[in-house]
Every structure is written in C-alpha cells, then in structure tokens.
Amino acid sequence: MINPAENGIDTLLKSTVIYRNQWRSLISAFQTTGINVNTPLLKGWGIGITYYNDRAGSAGWQQNNSINSTTYTQKLKELSLTLGLGLGVDQKSVDMDKFILPSQIGPNLSITPYSGAALATKSTSFDNSIGLFVSRPFDKSLLEVGISAGHLLANDLNVLENSDARYKQP
C-alpha cells in the first residue's frame, strides 16, 4: 500500500485491506482504514489504486488520500528492477468544534470556546509518490528490497493562529 513500485508485479490481481485502531486509551482513538487493488498489464507494466482514511476522532482531524499508480519492471539477468509512480489527491480537514487550540486552554485546564479569526479547516491538493523495488533470487529464496517517498506534493493544513505553526505532512 505504501510503495507504488510494488503494484502489479507478482500476481494476476492482488488486494490489500487494512484497519488500524491506535491509541485506544484516548477518548476517541486514531483510526486508519485503507484498500489497495493492483494488477499487471502488458509485459513489464502494472497498475494499482490505493485509498486510505486517517481519522483522529477526539481532535476532529481526518485525511483522505487516493493514489493511482503505474509500474514498469525491467529484468536484468537475475535482477528485477521496478519503478513506480503514483498520482492522486490528498485532502485534510479538521472540525474546529472538536479541535482545541493552545490559546483555548486556561490555567486550570478549562477550555474556552474559540473566538478568533476564521481558520483554514480543509486543504485539498494533488499528491504523488515514487518508489523503487528490487528483487533477486538468493539461496533458495527471494531477496526483495523497496524504497519509496510519498506525499511529495501534498499541502500542509494551517489550523493554528500562527501562520508558522502548520500541521506538516508526515
């Protein structure tokens, strides 16, 4: 799901579904759901689509991401090199009724309603990822190594009062 170079390289049709419920001790846990479907096409080419949603319930923050990817595999003797490129859309949003800014927390930890200027609550941008996947037979097994970089074009979402304090894309 993370490395676009792994789409469409090994089976006729492959799908992956994930669900993660993290930090359950929080009031509303951080949840991730996602799906990836990919398949090989013509000789050496493959395609895939990945969608995931991250949600931090008690903070009112969420991210939706959809990436379409294509791969090309080149065989060099026993070595197989695959390059993958993903293009898609990234959307982040925050519910300001749930999100608490540092300026809203009083000395006795009381929360005062937000009364400042309107803040950005949604950001939508193009997104891309790139990856490399290398495989080679090794001592009766297969040695596989992959590297990728994602969210290269995704925007930051500025939800804080200070324009220098932005939610940075991980």
* Integer tally of domains: 1
Strand content: over 45%
Order of helices and strands: EEEEEEE
What is the helix fraction of residues, given as a range?
under 10%
Shape: elongated
Radius of gyration: 20 Å
Q: What class, by secondary structure content?
A: mainly beta
Strand order of the largest sheet: 1-2-3-4-5-6-7
Number of strands: 7
Unreliable spans are: none
Roughly what is the average pLDDT, rounded to an integer?
A: 82
Question: Biggest sheet, in brief?
Answer: 7 strands, antiparallel
- Enumerate how many helices there are, as a single number: 0
What is the CA–CA distance across the termini?
16 Å
Walkthrough of the structure:
By secondary structure, the protein is mainly beta. The chain has one domain. 0% of the residues lie in helices and 54% in strands. The chain has no helices and 7 strands. Strands 1-2-3-4-5-6-7 form a 7-stranded antiparallel beta sheet, with no helix packed on it. It starts with 13 loop residues before the first strand and ends in a 20-residue tail after the last strand.
Labels describing this entry:
elongated, single chain, 170 residues, mainly beta
How are the SSEs placed, and which strands pair?
Layout: E1 14-22, E2 30-40, E3 45-56, E4 61-76, E5 79-94, E6 122-138, E7 141-150
Antiparallel strand pairs: 1-2, 2-3, 3-4, 4-5, 5-6, 6-7
Write a concise synopsis of the structure shown.
This protein has 170 residues and is an all-beta fold. Helices cover 0% and strands 54% of the residues. The chain has one domain.
